Amino acid sequence: MTIHKTLSLLLVALCYFSPAMAQYTDTVTSKISKTASGELVKTILLQNKKIVTYRSFLLPVGMIGYGIASLNSKGLKHVNEKIKEEIWTEAPHKKTPIDNYLQFAPAAAVYGLNMAGIKGKNNLRDRSIIYLMSNAMLNVSISSIKNTTRQQRPDGSAYNSFPSGHTAEAFASAEFLRQEYREVSPFYGIAGYAVATATGLLRMYNNKHWLSDVVAGAGIGIASTKLAYYLYPLIKRKLFKNRTMNAIVMPYYKNAGAGVSMIYNIN
Prior knowledge:
The structure is a single chain. By secondary structure, this protein is mostly helical. It has one domain (3-266). It has twelve helices and two strands. It has a two-stranded antiparallel ribbon. Helix 2 (17-23) crosses helix 5 (58-69), helix 5 crosses helix 12 and helix 10 crosses helix 12 (211-239). The longest helix is centred in the C-terminal third of the chain and has 29 residues, at 211-239. The radius of gyration is 18 Å and the shape is globular.
């Protein structure tokens, strides 16, 4: 199956979203509100109405809504099964581990570009804290929703399929790259999102996730980074008035677990 065909199926799947969202709004609200991340997002939106641009969250919220709607929609489940059939069932193939590392590539590019002398939007301290905030919200959201929904993976290996953590990390990193370098060139963001999309496609190629897992994961990743950028100015004013901080943030992958680590020194 070609990437072009996969993307075409993705667009068709998204067309189901509008009617499905209305039908499953109550389901989304009840599930997400029970999680720590849901309470965090609710508090943020209530306290920072003037800071948060709701329109910028329409796409990621729509993607998350599509994913949750697919948990109960026969039509969307059929889309998942059809894509699995096209990618895996009809053409079994060797899996690739590249998605385990590709998910961090856009974030690594932010630090690489700065080391190369191409300055982004924020200094080392600020961008590092924003990246850690994004990952904190992302990981809380992913873990909470996985434990709530307990969806079986396409390969039957576990019951933690929904949503895709790899894809969430990849799109959070892509949005991080876009935010830092959108004033330098839009092509940095385009490249980051291309890598994130490739990560999502590879999760399906490896038979580890359904389409809906990938779409929802992408939405969570984008929303997490956007929230981090909206919140950080408030935190910065309270925590860092005349202090400086030297820090380095590094993604890691070990024993099938991924995350970020930070070493810092505050003066």
